[in-house]
Structures are given as C-alpha cells and as structure tokens.
Amino acid sequence: MAVAIVVAAGRGTRLGHERPKALVPLAGRPLLAWSLEALLAVPDLRRVVVALPAGEALPADPARWGLAPRAFAPLPGTDEPRVVAVAGGRERSHSVRAALAATGDGPDDEPVVVQDGARPLTTPALVDACLAGVHAGADAAIAAAPVTDTVKQAHPDRPGAGLARVAATLDRSLLWAVQTPQAFRRDALRRALDQPDAVLAAATDDASLVEAAGGDVRLVPAPRSNLKVTVPEDLELATLLLARDDAPTVAG
C-alpha cells in the first residue's frame, strides 16, 4: 500500500483569481478535484492528505466537487477517512512536511506520492508508473517530460541590468522538465524534509531535496500535457485539453 499528499495551499497570485489556486473552477469543479480523482482511482493509495490554505476545508459531500459521493469514505476494513485535509505551510515543502505527518505511521519503504493540486491532467496510470519506480528500488521516481526547446543558460547578471546575456547553450537531450506526481520511499522523503525551514523554502520540488541528500532519483516519462496551472493561459489550455475524447472523465 501507499499514501499520497496533495499540495494545494498556494494562493496563486499569478493566476489572478480571488480564490486560492487549487480551488479555482475548471470545467465545472475545482482544479484540486481533478488531481484527487486521479489519485482516488489508484487502489494502492490507502490515504490521501490534502494541504489546504488556512481557513479552507474539504466539502462534507464530495459530490459538490464532482467526485463520487463516497470518495472520501474509509476503505473497506478501515475506520479512518481515505481523504483528509491539513493546513498548509508558508512554503511548498512546509506543506509537504505537515501532510506527511498527517498520513500516520508507515514502514520506511512505504511509497509516498506527492501531487500538485493544480495539475488537472494527471492520470492514474502515471501515478502507478511512479509507484512502480519506488517499488523497483529507487528512493524517488518522478514524472518528467523531455525538453524539446533549445535552452540557453544566462549569465547571473544583476536584475535590471538590461537584457540577459547568454552564457551557454545546454544539451537538451539531457534535460527534463519535472512535473508531479513524484513518488518517494517514506524514509527518504522524511529525511529530506527534516531540515531547517530556510532550506525547505529554497527547494523548488521535493525530489531536489532527496537528490541533494544523495538519494537515487529516477525519471518517469510523462506527457507535456500534464501541465501545472500557474497563469491564466494555463487554465485556458487545460480547459481545451480536458475537452478531448481521451481526457480524464468526471466521476458520476
């Protein structure tokens, strides 16, 4: 079995919406509901903990978010809700640390999936592929798409000094754009998060913390369509992608 964490505590100022980003409507329900639906379709996930902004809560009736009416109910043989919420922290990794604690106890090798609440086109198959990487022995297995654009590295000029100067053209055949889901061995993620708040605040994703600690991090090929909604244009693109015939379906 495994557990999952959904990072949904961001305010999303770049999206320009009055609601927290993960609760912004997309195709008739909150962004967060799409990520939850993908995770809940993975039988191996015994618990899902959502890190929400302070003052926000999960709906008492999941159907309000377009999910199955008993989506949050305990799995057979258990008495704890499958989906619970905690208050997120100031930075992403602070939220992950709080949510990991709320998953309860588990063996060191138990996989923990970390998912963005604003990544609505994630599929259960991609979650399964990341879990398989951890079951195969990796400390972390993370969704990523090969970079297709030419990438330039800029000189670290001071801000406001004019147009950035190119320092080098990087070999794009070696570059991957990282996404979520990201799956971790519980003990590897716990050790990576057991650091000062300032270190966690500087991390752009949880896999980079495991990598910096010497962990074995593997890449799981993922489609570029598994986008993260950050700016209004992303929301428009996600709406179009969800309208495709092969897009994730809304639970009845």
What would your notes on this structure say?
With 252 residues, the chain is of the alpha/beta class. It has a single domain, classed as Spore Coat Polysaccharide Biosynthesis Protein SpsA, Chain A, CATH 3.90.550.10. 26% of the residues lie in helices and 24% in strands. The model has no long low-confidence stretch (mean pLDDT 93). This is 2-C-methyl-D-erythritol 4-phosphate cytidylyltransferase. Catalyzes the formation of 4-diphosphocytidyl-2-C-methyl-D-erythritol from CTP and 2-C-methyl-D-erythritol 4-phosphate (MEP).
Helices and strands, with pairings:
Blueprint (H helix, E strand, L loop, with lengths): L1 E6 L17 E2 L2 E2 H10 L4 E8 L30 E5 L4 H11 L8 E6 L7 H12 L4 E7 L4 E4 L11 E5 L5 E10 H8 L3 H6 L3 H7 L4 E5 L10 H11 L10
Helix pairs in contact: 4-6
Pfam families: IspD
Pathway: Isoprenoid biosynthesis; isopentenyl diphosphate biosynthesis via DXP pathway; isopentenyl diphosphate from 1-deoxy-D-xylulose 5-phosphate: step 2/6
GO molecular function: 2-C-methyl-D-erythritol 4-phosphate cytidylyltransferase activity
